[in-house]
Amino acid sequence: MSLVSFLLYVVITSFTPGPNNIMAMLFANKYGFNKTIKFCFGVGAGFFVIMILSSYFNLVLHNFIPKIELPMMILGAGYMLFLAFKIITSRASDQDDDGGKYNGFLAGMLLQFVNPKGILYGITVVGTFILPSYTSNISLLLFSLFLAFVGFLSTSCWSLFGSVFQTFLSKYRSQFNVAMALLLAYSAISIFIG
User: Fold this and answer.
1) Is the pTM of this model over 0.70?
2) Which pLDDT tens digit goes with each residue over 142-163?
3) Residues 31, 162: contact at Cβ < 8 Å?
4) 69 contacts 3 by C-beta, under 8 angstroms
């Protein structure tokens, strides 16, 4: 395994905009970093489960993907469009109406199971970089922990950004919401054209 290629792929894929990072930034902007960290831990935990599943079922999934790819794409894109709709229709007065019910550990964890970017990333990184060189249970567990940690770091960084610029972004909340909703919609559409 080329360690440099592996790390470049992991960092670039993890830190680029996607549902996890965009939602983490939005939540931190809306509720603050401390209230968003549970979501980030949930993303990390869900991502860990996805990485473990990708590790042990990579060959099975590889053979089965053509059958589940379209339903997963539709489900994932639909969820992202739902999130985009919720963001674009929220108003400044809505800030505390939902009490952050989508900003918790469970929401962050469950997002991973409908996040096509995360699932395809797991299948790709495990199949391309890890399984050709490492197949022991301990190495698969350690790589899964590492990848989940990187996922947690990326959502935490995006959360920190949203929190640090909270005052600035609150002045431009509607423009910020539109931009975040458009990024999520773009992510959803890019599933079908990318």
Assistant:
1) yes
2) 999 999 999 999 999 999 988 8
3) no
4) no
Within 10 angstroms of residue 119's Cβ, the number of other Cβ atoms is 22
The rounded distance, in Å, linking the Cα atoms of 7 and 22 is 22
Q: What is the per-residue pLDDT for 151?
A: 94
3-state SS of the chain?
CCHHHHHHHHHHHHHCCCHHHHHHHHHHHHHCHHHHHHHHHHHHHHHHHHHHHHHHHHHHHHHHHHHHHHHHHHHHHHHHHHHHHHHHHCCHHHCCCCCCCCCCHHHHHHHHHHCHHHHHHHHHHHHHHHCCCCCCHHHHHHHHHHHHHHHHHHHHHHHHHHHHCHHHHHHCHHHHHHHHHHHHHHHHHHHHHC
Return the domain boundaries, the chain.
Answer: 19-90+100-193
